[in-house]
Amino acid sequence: MFLSIFLSVIFGCMFCTKKVAKNPALAYSDFAILDSCLKTNHVYYKNDANLLLPGSVGPHGNFKLRFNAIASKALTDNGKLPVGKTMPDGSLVIKDIYSGGNIALYAYMYKVKGSWLWGEIKPNKDIVHSVNDNIGVCTGCHSQAGNRDLITTFNFH
Predict the structure, then answer these.
(1) Domain limits at 113?
(2) 104 falls within a domain
(3) Rounded to 5 degrees, what are φ and ψ at 115?
(4) C-alpha distance from residue 66 to each of 15, 22, 79, 154 (Å)
(5) Which end of the chain is more exposed for a tag (fewer CB within 10 A), N or C?
(6) Closest CA relative to residue 67, chosen from 91, 32, 49
(7) Residue 26: predicted pLDDT
(8) Burial of 107 (0-12, 13-18, 19+ CB in 10 A)
(9) Is residue 120 packed enough to be buried (19+ CB in 10 Å), middle (13-18) or exposed (0-12)?
(10) Which residues, listed in sequence order, are joined to residue 105 by a DSSP beta bridge?
(11) Whether the predicted pLDDT of 21 surpasses 90
(12) At 143, is the secondary structure helix, strand, or coil?
């Protein structure tokens, strides 16, 4: 009996490993990025958690902008990316898009190997645009004149 329990534990450990350790690409999945969006330790745009920006110049609607620790280190004291500079790999930029006073959608950019991954996901885990979709419509707007590493908020606010 002891032998069968021991073997069950050994085989369980061998075959029930976390996929993240075996497949680092899963760190860039929609749900992994949603987990990052749900964290509360991000830096708000201009260090103001109450700053609700109007969405009148884009397709998203009213939003708050947040940066993970990696992205926030690239910002100046006024909360903007310097002209001509780029965000480092691992940067996460999140738009918390509001409707009726609540977050209705997370639109995000996540930088990997010098390129941005794009996506939109609702707090209830409904995927609007998957990180795997290669969304050309995002880069179309984000490539407009004056963008800073494809971030356009700095142009308007």
Answers:
(1) 22-156
(2) yes
(3) -125, 155
(4) 38, 30, 10, 13
(5) N
(6) 91
(7) 56
(8) buried
(9) buried
(10) 97
(11) no
(12) coil
The H or E element spanning position 98 is strand 92-99
Q: Which two tokens stand for residue 131?
A: 């990180």
| Residue at 75 is within a domain | yes
How many angstroms separate the CA atoms of 71 and 40, rounded?
A: 15
Give the pLDDT score at 86: 93
Q: Are 107 and 131 in contact (CB under 8 A)?
A: no
End-to-end CA distance of the chain: 68
Residue 142 inside a domain? The answer is yes
Compute CA distances 13 → 6, 16, 23, 145, whole Å.
Answer: 11, 5, 17, 53
Q: What is the DSSP letter of 90?
A: T
What is the mean pLDDT of the segment spanning 80-86?
91
Split at pLDDT 50, 70, 90, the class of 139 is low
- Rounded mean pLDDT, 28-48: 90
d(CA 66, CA 95): 6
What is the torsion angle, in degrees rounded to the nearest 10, for the CA atoms of residue 100, residue 131, residue 23 and residue 124? Answer: 20
pLDDT at 78 over 70: yes
Instruction: Name the domain count of the chain.
Output: 1
As given in the structure block, the two tokens for residue 104 are 């209705």
**Residue 1 falls inside a structural domain:** no
